[in-house]
Amino acid sequence: MLSTLSISNYALINRLEVDFDKGFTVITGETGAGKSILLGGLSLVLGKRADLTSLRVKDEKCIIEGTFKIDTYGLQKFFEEHDLDYEDSTVIRREILPSGKSRAFVNDTPVTLGVLSSLGENLIDIHSQHQTMQLTENDFQLKLVDALANNQKRLSEFRKDLKTYRKAEKELQSLIDIQSTANKEQDYNTFLLEELEKAPLKAGIIEELEEEYEQLNNVELIMEQLSKGDQLFNDEQIGVLPLVTEMRQSLSKLVDFGSNYKDLFERVKSVLIELDDVSSELQRLQEGVEANPDQLEQVNNKLQLLYNLLKKHNVGDIAELIIIKNDLADKVFETANLDNKIATKTKEIQELEVVLEAQAVVLSEKRNSVIPQLKKKLESDLGLLGMPSASFEIKLNASETFMSTGKDELSFLFTANRGGSYGELKKVASGGELSRIMLVIKAILAKYEKLPTIMFDEIDTGVSGEISNRMADIMKDMSADLQVFSITHLPQVASKGNHHFKVFKTEGKERTMTNLKQLTNDERVVELAHMLSGKDLSDSALAHAKELLNAAL
């Protein structure tokens, strides 16, 4: 519900702040007084685009602020999704700067116009000539049928499953596309993988092979030097071991003469143990060294294979080759497994289709069950609004594809004349007829859906007398469940309002300004009398105005 509207520096409005209440609110005023300006300002709060022509004083910013009570609207999820602070009494502010830039805020949090517009659709439904044309759209007509059929929960489940179905369809197509590309690359990837799998890929392998290659390639030199070392260690005349052994024996005779001699003896003894171990290692290595041309060739081939693979894949070490091998293995496996994935996804889609088909059938059955009731209600209410011969032909036709509303295409045809040919609303209904049909439909929707505040902008244009009374009664009945505004030129409609505001202009020294004022009962009598007789008030006009107001109250 719109509880407060504040406008400053907008068009002919200098400063305006007004409070609204629930129920039926009427807004009147002479032609050109500024009712469209008021609507324009409200539209800016709801996300309409603005430009510099909106500024009354060009070097000052325009600020429009609306306070909405939204505790019964179920908008908490919307606020969470857009990271906004939820308040039962939410404040929306719109600023238009002299530079032409525009800013929007919800509870002081900056938002985009897209978010503001989406929120605005849940707050106020401004009924205008443009909005009347929505009546001719199939989605809107089907929404009316679904409201009577109480299909909201069923539609929610259907759309949830349809979203899953559409996602599965995209995933299936993606798998098919991948398969088409992968099949072309599969042979090449398999070749590369097999080549890498044949190579001895492990950390440090190149260093190991290079070391082995150097040993095998220099076997004669190694054998020669090991033999020479063995000779230097063990020759009886000049060998290191015999000489050190002799030294140890000499020093053993001195150990009893002092600790310094004993320490020296122990050191020589330790050296001898180490040298003896080195000598044994030399002999072991000599026994293990032999020329092996075949092994040399194998090591060389492995090294060349690894060098070539590093160059081929443009990497610097074996670890990167291992990563490439694993990636290729995944690709080859995925391609080989695509047929199974495609089959699984196809089965999933088929199962979802069964579910959706069943849901679509229920939706269709519920719709068909209420169409006779809807037809009767529309024709009956329009008869009271001066269209006694109005008739509808409402049918459901099955579609081959799933839509967001099921598989029904609605044929919503109309004729205003008895025996006339049925046709689409936009082709056979006049503007006045469309307005009355829309009013009746909004009244029906108000009983079945939680609608936001509705503002009717001269929906009663072109009607008078009893018909205008009936239109006013419909709007007042609607206001029992929601906040209803009506901008009107008809005293019959204005008299039925729970609250009455007047839009008027005042002439200043330099500027004309638009204002909005809530009328007292006495002021309402005068305003209704003006609407009945014009500027010149007569006693009969005042009496008629009092009669209208008393009858309404």
From TrEMBL:
The keyword Ribosomal protein does not apply. Residues 2-509 form the RecF/RecN/SMC N-terminal domain. One of its GO terms (cellular component) is bacterial nucleoid. InterPro entries: DNA_recomb/repair_RecN (IPR004604), P-loop_NTPase (IPR027417), RecF/RecN/SMC_N (IPR003395). One of its GO terms (molecular function) is ATP binding. It comes from the Bacteria. This is DNA repair protein RecN. Belongs to the RecN family. It comes from Maribacter spongiicola.
